[in-house]
Design a protein that fits this description.
Blueprint: H1 12-17, H2 20-37, H3 51-65, E1 75-80, E2 83-86, E3 91-94, H4 97-100, H5 109-120, E4 125-126, H6 133-146, E5 155-159, H7 162-176, E6 182-186, H8 195-200, E7 215-219, H9 227-244, E8 249-254, H10 268-280, E9 284-289, H11 301-304, E10 313-316, E11 323-327, E12 344-345, H12 346-361, H13 370-388, E13 393-394, E14 403-407, H14 412-425, E15 427-428, E16 430-432, E17 438-441, H15 450-465
Parallel strand pairs: 3-15, 6-7, 6-8, 8-9, 9-10
Antiparallel strand pairs: 1-2, 2-3, 4-12, 5-11, 10-11, 13-14, 14-17, 16-17
Helix pairs in contact: 2-5, 5-12, 6-12, 9-10, 13-15, 14-15
Length: 466
């Protein structure tokens, strides 16, 4: 159990958390959970007797939320690692985990343990006027991880969503570089769906009917099909923008592996060239790690690409259960521009800390750590399928525990059809990119094994041949 920082034998809370009845209750609950979750260990089709009831529940959900969910997906509330049971009795191999949120998969005993501890604390939510010791633990943990290769990130502001973490990053940048008001982004990027972030996101449909809030300019993202051309194009585009709008750019906003854009990683030379030009022109660099955090060879993607010297502001989320914005002391706002009623649920913070512990325990990081080993194995299996079925799938295949492939010719309809075939066969992924459209996977890093990857690839092969 992660003991709260302030627990001490002289505090009543210390007596509570050390009460042997809690340990006994945890043990009983953990054993009971294991008895049932271990039954969920293979993909299976729906139970015909539950299909009608399940469809009715999905129809009600569509009415309640104003639209049907992307997948016909309502869990039963139980799973086992990357396996999840749905309300129709089917079991899926969940390799998208809420778009990267559930880093421990489903029904992990450490999540149960952390949630019990959170339930014993005095408040459900933590925020501007209510910080429990877990907030301090999370902030210090993230700052420590961020600075372990030389970055200088002194402060950490927790938040309830990746969009809010990115909003806060922009507020810090604009506040510090006032009156600069423009942002530079990469083609095909995704930042979020708030009014401001919809301007950064390179998807016109996401801005339909919304007022313009920011001036944003785009430069080419690195692409492995034309590494030299996209690198030089980005450098030339960046220099041209800075010359056209001198002193008007507050920040360069970067995804180091394109998320919604198709899971294309950049390179150190590409990013370093852009970051260096920005720093020479007093433009801050923001690394958006909401999706990449904990999925590459290091906790942060900027560490994976050795860009620590350029990390002015960094955002993260998803796998940590609570999101955050990290920034250096020189960027600390001089006015009250950063504040939120809620910065995170007590359970989210405790579970996030448990996730970080498990990622470290499983040796996920390092050039030959769990993440990169799983990537190499998955990539090898996909390459074998591509050779066996030419024209059916092709790479590139992402980076770390961010896996993707292009189905067929990458047409939108073809990709959507393939995705839904995979879902029906029991494998959950999601779409990414455009021209070509790709299928992406975010397997839960701490629990995915080669056996899970073998199963995923066997389902992909069925989808290809079926």
């Amino acid at each position: 159990m992660n003991q709260p920082i302030l627990n001490h034998e002289s505090l009543v809370s210390g007596e509570l958390f050390s009460d042997p009845r809690i340990a006994q209750a945890k043990k009983l609950l953990s054993e009971t959970l294991d008895d049932y979750s271990r039954k969920i260990n293979a993909v299976r089709p729906p139970n015909p007797a539950l299909v009608s009831q399940y469809k009715s529940a999905l129809d009600r959900l569509a009415i309640a939320r104003g639209g049907a969910p992307y997948f016909p997906y309502l869990t039963s509330g139980l799973g086992n690692g990357p396996f999840v049971e749905l309300g129709d009795g089917s079991i899926k191999l969940d390799f998208i985990v809420g778009i990267g949120v559930h880093g421990m998969g489903h029904s992990h005993p450490l999540m149960l343990d952390a949630t019990i501890d959170a339930g014993l604390e005095d408040t459900v939510m933590q925020g501007n006027l209510q910080h429990n010791s877990g907030s301090l633990a999370m902030c210090e943990r993230l700052i420590g991880l961020a600075n372990q290769q030389g970055a200088k990130l002194d402060h950490c502001l927790l938040s309830t969503s990746g969009a809010m973490a990115n909003e806060n990053s922009l507020k810090i940048a604009f506040h510090n570089r006032f009156p600069a008001s423009r942002v530079i982004c990469l083609d095909n990027c995704f930042a979020g769906r708030s009014l401001a972030l919809a301007q950064l996101t390179d998807r016109p449909a996401y801005r339909a009917g919304l007022p313009k809030t920011l001036d944003v300019d785009f430069i080419p993202m690195f692409h492995p099909a034309d590494p030299e051309g996209t690198t030089q194009g980005a450098i030339a585009g960046l220099k041209k923008l800075i010359a056209r709008h001198p002193c008007q750019y507050a920040c360069l906003w970067l995804e180091l592996v394109a998320g919604e854009g198709g899971y294309y990683p950049g390179t150190k030379p590409y990013f370093e060239a852009l970051c260096k030009i920005c720093h020479e022109n007093n433009i801050l660099v923001i690394f958006d790690e909401v999706q990449t955090f904990s999925r590459l060879s290091q906790p942060f993607a900027f560490q994976h690409f050795e860009l620590d010297a350029y990390a002015d502001i960094v955002t993260l989320g998803k796998i940590t259960q609570v999101c955050a914005t990290l920034y250096g002391d020189s960027l600390k706002p001089k006015g009250p521009v950063l504040s939120q009623t809620f910065t995170g649920a007590t359970a989210s913070i405790r579970c996030g800390l448990a996730v970080l512990d498990e990622l470290e325990s499983k040796k996920c990081f390092g050039p030959n750590g769990w993440n990169m080993q799983r990537h190499q194995y998955f990539q090898g299996k996909l390459e074998s399928l591509a050779q066996k079925y030419p024209g059916k799938i092709c790479g590139p295949y992402g980076e770390g525990m961010m896996i993707a492939f292009t189905p067929g010719n990458g047409g939108a309809d073809e990709a959507k059809d393939m995705l839904m075939r995979l879902y029906d066969l029991g494998l959950m992924g999601f779409l990414a990119g455009s021209n070509p459209n790709r299928i992406r996977f975010l397997p839960p890093p701490a629990v995915t094994t080669n056996e899970h990857i073998d199963l995923a690839c066997s389902i992909i092969e069925k989808a290809i041949t079926g």
